[in-house]
Amino acid sequence: MTFYGDVRPEAVQADDSLVAATDPIHREALDDAALMREVAHGSVEAFTMLVDRHSPALYRVAMRMLSDTAEAEDVVQDCFARLWQNAPRWSPSGAGLVGWLHRVTMNLCFDRKRRFRVVTVETVPDTADEAPLADRRIEADQASEAVAAALADLPERYRAALVLCYYEGFSNALAAQVLDLNIKAMESLLFRARRQMRTLLEARDVSCADLEAQG
């Protein structure tokens, strides 16, 4: 993923940083808090490590929230731009950096959903292979498309709850911190989200077993 503008200013260097002094083999072991301390002092290398470490998960979340590749990439880029800008003021607390990044990503997705109407186009294979294996593959693809369409039809808070807890494997407690909810409210939101998702899937003739296959 490419970053532009002042997100990674190459002019800023930190030659005496912890990252620069650490053996390359052990750099991956540096925790987020240690890397953030380096980013706060202008370390581009530490920032790059955080981008490499966390951008895949943030991109998955943004894609499931927005169903648009370009929008998802923009969200992740904006998220890391905010990380760079806020690094001097960041402190390790609550859900930590993972929670902070996911909260920013979710809020950026909510903002985009309010500004743009995302249209999901379902595709159907042009021709169907008569072979049983090909039939099963087509059925799996159609089920996957139906699940994605149902997820896109959920209210944004319901979708966020399922994306975090089901697809990303967050605990209810961590998801609650990301969405700025108490644990009871999070559990209630997740219950309602699952119930509505089940209703949407049943309307598309997709079973809950098909939903589990998408995890």
Automatic annotation (TrEMBL):
Alphabetically sorted, this entry's keywords are: DNA-binding, Sigma factor, Transcription, Transcription regulation
Ranges for domain RNA polymerase sigma factor 70 region 4 type: 145-197
**GO terms, molecular function:** DNA binding; sigma factor activity
Q: What is this protein called?
A: RNA polymerase sigma-70 factor (ECF subfamily)
> Which biological process annotations from GO are given for this protein?
DNA-templated transcription initiation
Domain RNA polymerase sigma-70 region per the UniProt entry, residue ranges: 50-115
Q: Which family does it belong to?
A: Belongs to the sigma-70 factor family. ECF subfamily.
Q: What is this organism's lineage? A: Bacteria, Pseudomonadati, Pseudomonadota, Alphaproteobacteria, Sphingomonadales
Species: Novosphingobium taihuense
Family annotation (CDD domains): Sigma70_r4
